[in-house]
Amino acid sequence: MAASNASVTQRRKLALIISNGNYKRKKNRIDDSMMNGRELMDLLNTIGFEVTLRENLSTNNAIMVEIKSFAEKLKENDIVLFYYCGHGCQVDQQNYLIPTDDTRLDMNTILSLGVPVNRILARLLNKTGDAETPPHLVIFIFDCGRPYRLENKERSIDQIVQPQDFHDMEAPPGVLILFTRQPNGILDNNLFAEHLIGMRKWKSKGRTIAGGAENNSGPGSALNRLNCPRGLAFTPKQAIIIADTSNHRILKYNPNDIVGQRIAGKNIPAHHDRALCAPTNAIFHEQLKSYIICDYQNRRVLQWTRKRNARSKVLIENIACYGIAVDHEGYVYISDTERHEVRRYSDFSKRGVRVAGGDGPEDSLHQLNHPTYLCVDLEKSVYVSDSWNNRVMKWKKGARSGIVVAGGNGRGDSCTQLDYPTGLAIDQWCNLYVADHWNHRIMRFRDGVLTGDIIIDNQHLPRDDPRQLNGPEGLLIDDDGNIYVADTYNHRIQRFDIKID
C-alpha cells in the first residue's frame, strides 16, 4: 500500500453495522444478531468510531439504500468497517446477504432477493479515487455462523441451502475480509462472536419465575409452588416445561405466568396411566404433538397428549430414564443411568440405537457412569452429563467414543473441574453451559476450551438468596441469552438476565 500523507490519528473512523435477526421464517431467526451488533457498536464507540447501526433490514433495496448512504460519507483517508450479522449464502461461488423478509426465498429467488457481497464491496471502494491515491482501509466482517435454512414443502425437516455457506473471497488492496468461520464450512468456531460473547455478563441477581412463592421459599404442592424441580425445556411458544420431581408432576409456565398449568401427574406417586413417580425430565415433541416424559422411578418413558383427561402411553419400559433431548429431525435421545448409555429413538416400537456409552460404568472415553442430562446440536452431536465421572462428554454422530468437553479432572471446584454435572445447554456458537450441581454454580465452556468461565456462582456454597443457587439441575438459554436454572433444593426456577450496558 502506498504511503499516505495523512497520519493514522488524522483519519476518520466510520463503521456501518447491519444486524439481521428477525427473519420472517421463524426457524431462521437469530436474536443474538441484534445483541452482537449493539455490543460491537459500544466497543467501536470507545475507540473513536462513528457508528451507524441498522437492524432487521427486510429487503435487498433497504440494505443497498443504507450502503449507498454510508458510502456517500466516506473520504479517501477514512478507516472503514462494515460488519454484517445475519444470514448469508453462496450461489455459483457468489456470496449473498439475506434480508429478513425471506418468505419467498428459495434457490430460484436468491439471486434477485439477496444482496451480492461484491456489489457492496464495489460501492464502498468507489470512494478511493484513482489508482495513484492510497485507498482508505476497508474492513469487512461477515458474521454468518449459522447455516441458512429453507422451508421444504415435501418434507417435515428443513433443508439447508447448500452444504457450504459463504465462498472464499479475494481481498483487493486496502481491504481486509474476515469470515467469523471458515469459508465453505457449515459451522466453525465463530472467533469474532466468541470474543463478543466472552465479554457478556449476566445480572448477578436472579429473578424467580416459578416456585419460591412470596414469603415462603420452601417446597409446596400448589400450582405456584415447586418441590425439587429438575429438568427444564422450552415449548415452541417459549413456555417452560418443568419436571416438578418431588411433586410427581409436569408443569408448564407460559411467559409471564405466576401459576403453572398441570400437564401430567397428580402430586401423589403412583404407577397407573395417569400418575408419575419422580419424573426427571420432559419435552414437547412437535411432530408427535405430545409430551415425552422420563417417569424415572416408574422406570418408563411416557407419551402424554394435551387432551383433557388423556391417559399416558408407555413408549419404553424397564429403563432408568433420566435425561431426554430431541434433535431438529424429531429423533429422541434418552439417557439410562443403570445401563450407562444414551439411545436414539425414531420409532418407539424398537429398542433404539445406542449413540453413547453402554459398556459399563467406567471412565474411559467410550464409557459413561450414570449419564443424566443431554443436549443435541445441529450436527447431531450428543452432549452428555457423565455425572459420576464429573465430566461432560461429546459424542459426534456415529462415533464409537466420546470427547471430554468439560471437567474430567476429578471432582473439584476449579475452573477445569466439575462436581456432579447436571443440566446442559448449547448456544448458537457451540459454547457449552453446565449446571455444576454440588458446586452450586453455572459454568460456560467455549468450544474446544477445557477451562470454564463461572457465569453464576455463590462460592461453592448452597444459599437461597436471589444471587445464589442450591443444587442446580435443569438449564435453558433463550434466544436473547437469558439463562434459566432449576434451583432444585431452593424449589424454584431462576432467570438470570443478560446485561446490556
In short:
By secondary structure, the chain is mainly beta.
Strand order in space, largest sheet: 2-1-3-7-10
Low-confidence stretches: 1-9, 127-135, 152-164, 182-190
What value does the Rg take, in angstroms?
25 Å
Q: Kindly state the mean pLDDT as a whole number?
A: 85
Structural class: mainly beta
Number of helices: 5
Q: Using the coordinates shown, work out and report the CATH topology of the largest domain.
A: Neuraminidase
Domain Caspase family p20: 11-88
Keywords: Repeat
GO biological process, one term: proteolysis
Protein name: Caspase family p20 domain-containing protein
Summarize the SSE layout with pairings.
Elements: E1 13-19, H1 32-46, E2 50-55, H2 60-71, E3 79-85, E4 88-91, E5 94-97, H3 110-113, E6 115-116, H4 117-125, E7 137-143, E8 149-150, E9 159-160, E10 175-179, H5 191-198, E11 207-211, E12 229-234, E13 240-244, E14 249-253, E15 261-265, E16 281-285, E17 290-295, E18 300-305, E19 313-317, E20 321-326, E21 332-336, E22 341-345, E23 353-357, E24 371-376, E25 382-386, E26 391-395, E27 403-407, E28 421-426, E29 432-436, E30 441-445, E31 453-456, E32 472-477, E33 483-487, E34 492-496
Parallel strand pairs: 1-2, 1-3, 3-7, 7-10
Antiparallel strand pairs: 4-5, 5-6, 8-9, 11-34, 12-13, 13-14, 14-15, 16-17, 17-18, 18-19, 20-21, 21-22, 22-23, 24-25, 25-26, 26-27, 28-29, 29-30, 30-31, 32-33, 33-34
Keywords: Repeat
GO molecular function: cysteine-type endopeptidase activity; zinc ion binding
Domain Caspase family p20: 11-88
